[in-house]
Design brief:
The protein has helices at about 10-20, 50-60, 60-70, 75-80, 175-185; strands at about 1-5, 30, 40-45, 70-75, 85, 100-105, 115-120, 130-135, 135-140, 145-150, 155-160, 165. With about 190 residues, the chain is an alpha/beta fold. The strands form 3 sheets. Strands 2-1-3-4-12-11-10 form a 7-stranded mixed β-sheet. Helix 1 (about 10-20) packs across helix 5. The protein binds glutamine. Glutamine binds near residues 49, 76, 80 and 133. Glutamine binds near residues 46, 47, 48 and 76.
Length: about 190
Amino acid sequence: MGVLALQGDVEEHVAAMRRALGRRGEVVVVKRAEQLGELRALVIPGGESTTIGLLMQKYGIDRAILEAELSIFGTCAGAVLLAEVIEGYEEQFSLRLMDMAVARNAFGRQRESFEAELSIPVLGEKPFPGVFIRAPVITRVWGRAEVLAEHEGRVVLARQGRYLACSFHPELTGDRRLHRYFLEEVVE
Ligand code: GLN
């Protein structure tokens, strides 16, 4: 299990993943392409998707990710980097691994950051604390992608096989259920 450490909220994901994994495995802080060959799964954290994308390309990490056929959990900026289409930013780099379109910073200025209780059926009945920070929205899914949660009618969590993408920041809460869901249900 690795956390991509090019930019963004890396530390929080490493800590969250360590707690979710327990003694089942190690969390590797990934800074170089060579590290990816040994992993089965990777978190792409929130941050600035343009910056993370540029650094991925600069260090050949984009190719290494695709070659390693990893399971991937993309949160916030990480979700943007998994999308086939980034609306309004068609030139921006993306891994294009999920059949979905996203719109960046889609909740508008009034609501740059907010918290909301999310209903996520795959995690059980208890609401999940969603922390949204200049969050993207998943505007469309097609093909093999499926919607796992919405907030006020807008898609904020989607899965496609071994890929999981969310608009919010699960690493910034004490609730480890989404990290555990990734490890137990999504990772191949
Ligand atoms: N809006 C940012 C982007 O598109 C993502 C924000 C975040 O990851 N908190 O890169």
